[in-house]
From TrEMBL:
It comes from Corallibacter vietnamensis. The lineage of its organism: Bacteria, Pseudomonadati, Bacteroidota, Flavobacteriia, Flavobacteriales. The keyword tRNA processing does not apply. Belongs to the ABC transporter superfamily. GO terms for molecular function: ATP binding. InterPro entries: AAA+_ATPase (IPR003593), ABC_transporter-like_ATP-bd (IPR003439), ABC_transporter-like_CS (IPR017871), ABC_transpr_TagH-like (IPR015860), Bact_Polysacc_Export_ATP-bd (IPR050683), P-loop_NTPase (IPR027417). Keywords: ATP-binding, Nucleotide-binding, Transport. This is ABC transporter ATP-binding protein. The keyword Transport applies. Pfam families: ABC_tran.
Length: 401
């Protein structure tokens, strides 16, 4: 088996849709009548049309797992549907070598009135397997999907997770050359997702995988290549998965500061910096994480602990920093300075939430105020872009070659 064999080749692929159903039907009739397919008009937009996928080019080899990422409406599912032959492109070509296993829409490819077992035979037949071949795989498919008890129940009575289990088990156990998986995997529970990732790693040496997800932890876990789509266009095609994920996050706006109980302790301002205050909002990866808070309150509060919760762009809480106990005077604006040392956060953007806890009574800590996603800051430095919260390098100057 040639590991670097190209299994998927996509050339100048474009697909347009129409925003309005009536107009779309009208264009459909016109195209049929004029036999427009193949003419130069396929590359032009008519009123109310837009490109869902525009001029996409890439190649995928056996052993590669491509993560297709992009925000809502970027064109990911449309591209997958073209690759799987469910819809025709308006321009460009797709060349796929070998058998394609796909898990695209929840329940798609299953006949709801047939049982799980009957659907396995149907799907296997569509993929080109004989009844005998499916017989030999049946046990493994049912066991992988953990559906022994329910395999003779009509699929229409399956839960969403059960449909995903069956769909993935069929697609992955049939030894496809190309495996296409849409967001659906996120519907299953985490233990099934992990089991699926292990299966993908296992078959990857013989397969090319295309995986769509909004979960960047999932993408970073299994993909060794990333394509970032935006409004149908390919913004990035990279083997540096961390870089691709960062570019995805750079296009994401996470607004939505939330303040709870803000009348208790007012957080008027927060500065996050490394060197001096002029560099507010920026932390050098190898320098101290410093924080200056400006606070006020109507009442005096003694023994207040400030908890700083750092969230990454996927909104995962990557660190909690707690301060010494402070006292807040009534009716005055006070500045407090904190230094948490070097945090070794990897290069990316982060948010802080700031929570004030009353610690008068050790066993009974009360939340006084909670400011969620109060401020964004960026970690910068010369190090590599990685999708992991922390990045460390060995402290050793000697290079062994
Ligand atoms: N059959 C269709 N008719 C008209 N427009 C469509 C059709 N299918 C998709 N679109 C449009 O094409 C664009 C791309 O949709 P697509 O489903 O490919 O995006 P996506 O990247 O998968 O998004 P999401 O992350 O929300 O699933 C969207 O603007 C969508 O409304």
């Amino acid at each position: 088996m040639n590991n670097s064999e190209i299994l998927v080749k996509v050339e100048n692929l474009s697909k347009k849709f129409c925003k309005d159903l009536k107009t779309s039907l009208w264009y459909g009739v016109k195209d049929l009548v004029s036999g427009v397919r193949g003419s130069s008009q396929e590359r032009q937009l008519r009123p109310k049309e837009f490109w869902a996928v525009k001029d996409i080019n890439f190649e995928l080899r056996r052993g590669e797992c491509l993560g297709l990422i992009g925000h809502n409406g970027a064109g990911k599912s449309t591209l997958l549907k073209i690759l799987n032959g469910l819809i025709n492109p308006d321009a460009g070509t797709v060349t796929i070598k070998g058998r394609v296993g796909a898990l695209i829409e929840l329940g798609a490819g299953f006949n709801p009135i047939l049982t799980g077992r009957e659907n396995i035979y149907n799907n296997g037949a569509i993929l080109g397997f004989s009844r005998k071949e499916i017989d030999t795989k049946l046990h493994d498919i049912i066991a992988f999907a953990e559906l022994e008890e329910f395999i003779d129940m009509p699929v229409q009575h399956y839960s969403s997770g059960m449909k995903v289990r069956l769909g993935f088990a069929v697609a992955a156990q049939m030894e496809p050359d190309v495996l296409i998986i849409d967001e659906v995997l996120a519907v299953g529970d985490m233990s099934f997702a992990m089991k699926s990732f292990n299966k993908i790693s296992e078959i990857l040496k013989n397969t090319a995988v295309i995986f769509v997800s909004h979960s960047m932890p999932f993408i970073s876990r299994i993909c060794n290549h990333v394509i970032l789509l935006h409004k149908g266009e390919m913004l990035m095609n990279t083997g540096n998965v961390g870089e691709g994920i960062q570019a995805y996050f750079d296009r994401q706006s996470l607004s939505g500061k939330l303040n709870f109980k803000e009348d208790v302790i007012c957080l008027n301002n927060a500065n996050v910096f490394s060197g001096d205050l002029d560099n507010d909002g920026y932390i050098e990866s190898d320098k101290n994480f410093k924080l200056k808070l400006n606070l006020s309150s109507n009442k005096e509060y003694k023994k207040v602990r400030v908890a700083i919760l750092i969230y990454n762009m996927a909104q995962i809480n990557v660190a909690i920093l707690e301060t010494r106990l402070i006292s807040i005077k009534a009716e005055s604006n006070q500045d407090f300075d904190f230094d948490f040392g070097v945090l070794n956060l990897s290069i990316s953007a982060y948010f802080i939430s700031v929570r004030f806890d009353s610690c008068i009574d050790e066993g009974n800590i009360q939340v006084l105020s909670n400011y969620i996603n109060y401020k964004e800051f960026k970690v910068q430095g010369n190090d590599r872009l990685v999708f992991a919260p922390f990045y460390f390098k060995e402290k050793n100057d000697k290079t062994e070659v």
